[in-house]
């Protein structure tokens, strides 16, 4: 069977059928003197066979045959044979021909029934059998295969006495059934019409099957493989302007291969003049490359951008959240940016997840597709180098474009960038990062401390003094360019000396007992000197666990021992949580003489779960009260320029009184469900659910200090990358020469005993 010049539409196939019938009519007139097959045996070839073949192949199943169609062809063929059955009068050869022809029709019927039955059985062998039978019927079940044996039987039985009848019927059979002169003539007509009217069109690419509003045009391609993904076509719609569409994917079969396209733009009159008159409507055309470039230039369309289409906007999309059906997923990954046109603006979204769906397309064919989810980032304002919130949502079926991969070129104020792009995340206001408090949350080893150290260096460059409470002893090494170790060692020696004074002494007033009052005063004096505007130093580091001081909880009590009366009070070690309270409250007290909206001092709580623990994580009531005191200092500190940077790997174990006051959040990889539940209130459940899988050196950044109004997933700067770029314009200030300050006379008990009585 000769392949058709292209997949004709139904009206075109009807025209082809009429041409084939004319050929049959001419043959009948030549043989029998009438324009139709005669009644009786001489006309059987025409009525029972040829007409069924032509009508079936042209109008009923022009492209492929389903098992039910094969059954519907085999049954009439078998019945028509039974109607002409004249077994007793036939010769042996005729009986053999009849048996073979009827047996073939019956065989096709049995295969069709077997296919339907096996398809209903849900086992592996039945599925394999059903597929094999279905493939066989796609060929054997064609009307050409089922009815041609009937025509040959009719020739053998009723026309062998006339050589001219045999020859002409065979020629008609070949011209109409196996070659189809009608298809040839119709196809040639349209090709000539295409070439005559417009030589700028390469060829017809497909016929319109349906318009699926909004923006989707379903095509039936002319030749298998002729339409490729991301091809740009012109659709000629007789009910409206011509449309420029981009090919998305194959979506099924219905009288041929169905191709889904998306309408990019309705063409203007100027573009239609450039294209010229199209030969016929309801079709899609491929344009010559030069003409296509001219059209896209007139319509302000970037041709290269169309190859970046990865999906279509799906239902349920709202202003903050984009859902899109994925049509190309080779470059998609969590964190990548995609873009959608909303009105005249290009709005960027960040992919945060996806799920699989099943969709029903034309004529109930089904296919599974991936539905991706993305959060709005905003409209990029190149002048301000930041994102602006978009206050509306895209249309359904609007194309979704993936942002091309771009090398990150770090800027001075960049805290990181969107993965696979050069869109950069910035600290919008370093002062608000401090005064409105910031938290860095994530598991061990994902880069929390490196991020904190970068933020500290940015604070120092802005003149903000930083007090680090570091249990890891890491900050002094990483920030050595800002840290006067000799000077700070001398200051630390004074504090440790103060913590030993009166270490075993109790007092009638519990608040005055132990060495805690001396340590508190020494810390206060040290911070007064550090915070002073005359002091050029910007960084001070404490390790709260390095102070060995005592405190008195209760009034002294008298007791008798060996006949003598004694009086004493229990002394207890001061914990890192209580030292944290002392430092925090001292900083607030010193700064409370002046109100300001600028940051003056930032308290860095490294390993915050050990410094400001949640109430149910403390080991004693003293730590609970100390944490409350630190929290009060942070709550009151903003109006005086005091804030905190909190770093922890255990979100659940940090006091929520302070965490809830952190208006900026860097959320890194975490597996703690309690922590993710807490973070969902800040960054949303979509980003929070993704936290268990984000890579190292990545963080979800959101809050008052961010240059973006929405949560974003960013790839953070590497340490050396940041320092090279940042210090090129912000070199560390030269620290003053160290001069040991004469220490005040401090009385130290010569009989100091390291054991603390309880």
Count of DSSP-assigned helices: 23
Rg over CA atoms, rounded to whole Å, is 42 Å
Distance between the termini: 104 Å
**Structural class by SSE content:** alpha+beta
Proportion in helices: 25-40%
Q: Roughly what fraction of the amino acids lie in strands?
A: 15-25%
Poorly predicted regions are 1-5, 740-758
Strand order of the largest sheet: 15-14-27-26-25-16-24-23-17-18
Q: What is the averaged pLDDT score?
A: 84
Give the total of beta strands.
27
Coarse morphology: elongated
* Biggest sheet character: 10 strands, mixed
Task: Describe this structure as you would to a colleague.
There is one protein chain. With about 750 residues, the protein is of the alpha+beta class. Helix content is about 40%, strand content about 20%. It has 23 helices and 27 strands. Strands 15-14-27-26-25-16-24-23-17-18 form a ten-stranded mixed β-sheet, sandwiched between helices. A six-stranded antiparallel barrel has the order 1-2-5-4-3-6. Helix 1 (about 10-30) packs across helix 8 (about 180-195). The longest helix is centred in the N-terminal third of the chain and has 28 residues, at about 90-120. The protein is elongated.
